[in-house]
# Entry
Amino acid sequence: MTRNAPAPQGPVPRRGRDRRARVWRAAPGLARVPHGHQAPTTAVVGGGIAGLAAATALVERGVRVTLYEREYQLGGRLAGWPVELADGSTATMSRGFHAFFRQYYNLRGLLRRADPGLTMLTGLADYPLRHSAGFEDSFAKVPRTPPWSALGFAARSPTFGWRDLTGMNPRAALPLMDVRVPDVYRRLDKVSAQDLLERIRFPEAAHHLAFEVFSRSFFADPSRLSAAELALMFHIYFLGSSEGLLFDVPQEPFPAALWQPLAAYLTGHGADLRTGQAVESVRPQGDGGFRVATQHGELRHDAVVLALDTAGLQHVVARSPGLADRDWRERVMRLRTAPPFLVSRLWLDRPVAADRAGFLGTSGYGPLDNVSVLERWEGEAMRWVARTGGSVVELHAYAVAPGTDRTAEQDRLLVQLQRLYPETRDAKIVDERHEWRADCPLFAVGGYDDRPTVRTTDPALTVAGDLVRTELPSALMERAATTGFLAANALLERWGLHGQTLWSVPDRGRVGALRALNRLAGT
# Structure
């Protein structure tokens, strides 16, 4: 395929309010597969955010894409499915609340394909954090631009006093002020998040209320989470970006708001979406292509994007002995999954108090990590509440100890809800659903080197997902979208096609003096 002049840029993620956000440009190439040329074929294995992003970038350039998803719904860990409630109504169950932060440039760019104005999202007014001892933090009035964001949070937080601040170790905190990838992993990956916080000597209340709440958003206990991942998280959400910590949420359940419109966009561009088809193996062929096998048979593809969770990736790799090389396969098999987590959704016969936040992070309430009141933003829940006078409440427990009695844990969450929101003590449960999952990646201490990169030793095989390491500072859903686009870009570059331009939060600390001090401290 010959190159012409650089193609005009296709759909581009939009930078938000942060003027220092970083643009990452793809290699130049043709806008689409030229008319009359045979389009390359690609199998995208996995229909979560990463797979959908990869499929989108490929079909927009004229690549023939077959997307395989083992479940019957798209969305991966943001999928949703219908359930019939005890009162005869139908609701959409999911794996729980997700926050769409304003610094999720590439994820939001993906969603704009089906909804250019992002009208499916609405902002929550606050993100309060509450400790059982009575402390409560809020981000609603905290400045969004660093370093004023950090100073404003400390000044407003009841967990920080001047005596606490003078007792902290500023040298130990320097890595948080100048996060660069992969340097932050070189310096902190062999340290746990808990050890880093203890070195810094944050006040105990702040440690529990703010930092533990954030670290558990990675579905891991701070003692098992890499300090590098914690530092990167603070850079993305607080210390490195001026987008702030407030976020948006979908106004309807995930399928209706996000995935059905995006599926229509993809099929409109010629993508073949095969839900309910689990890939069993991917076998390299002598001509450079691959045979992708499902329970329905095999198809040949020129290239493959593996956009799977940890267990799914290991399942395929274990049955595909010719993929990439032996070292790569062994590193994949060493990846680990985070401990189980629980999402309990309760349909109550009476409302919670009118002043309850849509989303509340908690600490000190036993296994309860957060509470969502869905009718504060989700149309489906609003309609059920309007019809019944009740409330729809969701409870999360992260990093549950393996082997925990599940029924007892569900009961403990309910007890903590009633402790936190006393008006629920007399409420009857119209219906309830409990989702137990253990499929999130564990960013374990010292585990960075085993995590796959987007590119493999086979240029026709790429990997995407939130478990993948990349030089772009990103995490969680945004890392999934970013690596999905990067996986597509690697293949498009091979075929002389123009890739997707990406954005990220700044790729270094915002204060030059603190960056210089951090470099000196690291030598």
In short: The CA atoms of residues 367 and 412 lie 7 Å apart. Residues 476-494 form the longest helix (19 residues). The chain has a mean pLDDT of 90.
